[in-house]
């Protein structure tokens, strides 16, 4: 581990954990996410969720009003009333997540107690779970960590030998990975979060966990407490990382090397072909990753080792050295890894370095484009199916496309 | 505690950001946790702006709460002033900071900064975005001008005559994330220029602190967007004696009235009565024979106060539509909207619950919806054409082309954007003529795509459960059934009136106590309603 690890603090420009709802509600269509917060929270999710809603969403906000703050209305009673109304309106909901926000945390609204009472009242028709997605405690993808770690105590216990994939994947990617694990000889593969919120996987001493996403610190800790073993590996981004990730499971299942090679080598060859055209566009180009999604380290590793890019700086909102160990080991010596953020100073460094591509949040992208710097939204990387060896080409394309576009438009300006 | 799935307005500090980001040389220090920085994307993505809004967030975290958040505020204020060197500083807080009561404004004022500091108190748990914008503009104007000598009695709006100069007005209210403000300002400038009236200051859009100091030099203020500017205009009137205009120049009639009002305030002759007909194509297009099909089209209007009031007037008086629903999400504008609705024989819908708006829309069964982007979605679900007339902003509402709503050109734009979603007259005429031809059996492929051109076997959009449920609930009776023969006859009716025919027929059947609707019932109902 010879990356140059630095820290910085100051004004941040990162989404809060509430934003994770935007992909979690798509993963578990029978769940509803009720933010207990302010008008700002409601406005944030609707702005980050895309522009507008085309169907009735599976998330909403119980907006605190002056009455709730002044204690005129008992906030717990009010919350229960809102939940009852909601469940009457949407009887198909099976799991209700009560999501804490900055205001509800500051006024110390006890959502755990509210969940408990509601669970009793609902008598098993709906399961009520709570976690915090507040911006004073969580950044962006940490919201998923909160939601999943809130589910861990509900998982049934089992000593069955199984592989548990933890972290939201696109359905198609997940299907493909399960097929590949079966080819390797691992038959029992389950997922957290599941596709149906009620279909919770069991956990116990026979469970070996592969983390699909690098931002799941609390969930990992709680799974360990339930007896699961976490398989150390890089994350399944890019061909190399995905292969090492799958091999970690294969080794835990004592699958012989010939079987692994027979299964994975053809995939690696295909990925090499898929990556080649993008590698040609990306090799030698300089990239600056601003902190947001926690995917920055695995992405930097992929872009440097498989696409030949030069890493100017790799930002990350926080650094869990344990979960990032395998990634840090694969980064080139001296890579500048910056934990935390002072957005103004970071932008100064971006301007000084004039990188070819910047990975950043939605609020910063157009201003950087206006300065002539190509950008990639980090939120897109959380939404897109980018995991696995088969997806390496698609992942590289997400980075080569903005460069390609800049080239096309620059050529257009010549004539 | 209110359950919200989607909301028309953001919190009040977003309104403050709209003012800060609209202006030059103003910086806003917002005491807020990191999640609140999402608001930047409203400007950089929705408005596609090439600069970040001039806002420094203190981004306090849970671990700061036990310590000294006041020191954190001061550090960010200091850094922001050093880095951005603003001409004026706004200091405020978002919803969470309001709870921890650091009073960042007072802290900043105590720092001995060498620039004007305006403190914002925007109660996040009771107020919303437009109110926040109006309050910020008002505090800024008042804060910057309070030192200027004021003698309201001495102001003479006709002084330009003796001073032998052109009359001078300020345009107040246009801001970022306001509906087509950028183009409206250009159009109003053109309009005023034609009348020999000079524009002194436009505010907040592109105004600097120096511009704010010049506000009292104008003869009259033009209040372009009352939601944002009315409180400032009335303070300027009280303090400096500057009168302001009440008419918003959207539509030919309102533009005419606006010119008359403004010229009267300035002591000028009334404008020529036919200027609208000369300068805008709306009056003639509306009179032209192709527009005959617009007669009595039933429209449902919902949006911000300014735009729905204007829309109601244009719809009825300039296009010959029938307004069947009128409402706004702006509670601050509830009074005038209620009055307008009453004048039209309606009860105004004042609500920020889009589901209530959708239900009202379904109930009114209009042929055209004029609304926000949300009503566009609701209307699509109901299979009704829609044009967007109001905020909240969507990237589609910031077009690359010139597209004002105000003045003569604005009237042209409105004619096109409202009328295009309806079928053009000749086209509708032909469909009526040929509707028994086999091509039209299942309706007509229109701009509404699959909703317009229903494929056989697809459910009819106007028969959506919401509609039948509403009909059923009102009567409290058992649901009516349509016979196969009745359904077949209904399908022969062009889709754009099918919903209305279905409703009428069901109402008739219920009145007549018929449980089944066959083709004969449909013809009976038709005769009954045309009689």
Model description:
The complex is a heterodimer of chains A (about 425) and B (about 525). With about 425 residues, chain A is of the alpha/beta class. Helices cover about 45% and strands about 15% of the residues of chain A. The longest helix of chain A is centred in the middle third of the chain and has 26 residues, at about 255-280. Chain A is globular and about 65 Å long. Helix content of chain B is about 45%, strand content about 10%. A 5-stranded parallel β-sheet of chain B has the order 12-11-10-13-14, with helices on both faces. In chain B, strands 3-2-4-5 form a 4-stranded parallel β-sheet, sandwiched between helices. In chain B, α9 packs across α19 and α15 (about 305-320) packs parallel to α16 (about 335-345). The longest helix of chain B is centred in the N-terminal third of the chain and has 17 residues, at about 130-145. Chain B is globular. In chain B, about 50% of the residues are buried. The chains are: A alpha/beta (about 425), B alpha/beta (about 525). At the A-B interface, α2, β3, α3, α4 and α5 of A face β1, α2, α3, α4 and α5 of B. β3 of chain A pairs antiparallel with β1 of chain B.
